[in-house]
Amino acid sequence: MDLKLLTIDGARSAVQERKTSAVALAEMFYLKIEKDDPQIGAYLTQCKDRAMAKAIEMDALAAKGDKLPPLGGVPVAIKDVMVTRGVRTTAGSKILGNYVPPYDCTAVARLEAAGAVVLGKTNCDEFAMGSSNENSAFRPVHNPRDLSRVPGGSSGGSAAAVAADMAVVTLGSDTGGSIRQPASFCGVVGLKPTYGRVSRYGLIAFASSLDHIGPFGKTVKDVATVLGVIAGRDPMDATSADLPVPDYVAQLDKPIRGFKIGVAKEYLGEGLDPEVRATVAKAIEKLGKLGCEIVEISLPHTEYAISAYYIIATAEASSNLARFDGVRYGYRAGDARTLSEMYRRTRDQGFGAEVKRRIMLGTYALSAGYYDAYYLKAQKVRTLLTQDFDEAFKKVDAIVTPTSPTAAFKLGEKVDDPLAMYLADIYTVTANIAGIPGISVPCGETKEKLPIGMQVFGKHFDESAVLRVAAAYERGS
Amino acid sequence: MKVTEKDVAYVADLANLELTDDERTRMVRDLNSILGHIDRLNELDTSNVEPMAQVSDRYGVDPSKHGGARFAYASREDVVEGLRKSLPQDEALANAPDADGTFFRVPKVIER
Lengths: 477, 112
Hints:
The complex is a heterodimer. By secondary structure, chain A is of the alpha/beta class.
């Protein structure tokens, strides 16, 4: 079986028709991981016992002739920020280096209930804070397309695992672009759903009002299939929306003739690599040929998005990460004589440089005397950015942009310049701020054969439009 | 320079971090660089703009209602073990760096 071409349908039907077994399929993937992952670093933990138990269950169903569930026997991997009962979950941090959660993340539980075989947990930037995966406390991830380059971040391991055929589909999380940017860098499809579409229960919190869980896959259809499985109201997450989940896959083949596609000049300005600009322009042209009406729009506050984002995200992070104190779980510094000394040393030794930087920035922005100037100001700009999209979506059905201003950069290139690293998120953070869905779909390569991604935004809870545009582009290209 | 070494020490204290001398020096540099960019927010007049903390009060709610009633779908009865059972004590303590089987153990709380 050629793992390179394997999709959900291919894997599931092979197990269903007993051309292979779910156990044999999982073993093939583990062999692939053993052979290739030392160079790539996509996995932090493998959970073979758990994978094999599920595979055996799926093989038994197939042997009986029962219809397999939608992900029956499909090998998947989970970003290590989603908790898994009995399987170490680190968030890429030393402070959770030996944490074994007592419960399962809802999205993971739903995947497994749909028959997915969870191979393991994927590498990521510490607490999902980063755009290159170099902030993992364990090891950086290398881009499978060019090992000298980053896979993007923070879900770099999940993107790389799909790109290197070490899982059929994976889950990632996206707080400012952490699914879409690595999807773009690694040449795979990645979707951030609407805020509230997928439960965050069991997702280790970075910035609660911006955090999302979403899928990576090789095809738009695979991503649509996984979204259908993980979406929907969960009483364990009060912010998960009580709205029906449409059949995303059934809608993919609908033509997009007559769709109005917005193109915003603010996403094609300064800092955009000329090769990326030309490639995305060509992709937009193709959408025009597919019958879409291309409409020029303006999202006037875009240039303020990074500033607002890094205040809101770090403020929420400083609060969320206060729970890591060395008392109930995780790392504890061993040499403290008093409780307050123990807290400080535990956090000093347990957190990496970027996490401390964000805790500091967020604490500063929330501190007396600065709250109005920074946090409140950023929340008001969040309103303006959201209104930009409200206005635009009165005129268009979807918006197309580059996913990232550049293709994958070299490891080490931006590691000493946090601001330059933050600006890598310039086209993705807006969707988190407004809570709208966004997808990155491959749309070409640079001269150096590095993948380029096209991003599609849609209205709140209109993942269908986003998926349909991406699928039509994929079919037509 | 907006942020001084003194500010960094004060904020680190609020955040329960200690930071080494090197880390403090670098933090001064990094925070000033990032805040220098963030200061562009002041170009915008937001005097008549409402702040927005999150997006979930816009969708899937009853827009004619306000306050708690608006989020009625997300509420539940206030009962013991409402959505899931509490963890058994041994599981709750299993990840603790130091526990005695009944309690989490920590260093001395009162300093003298």
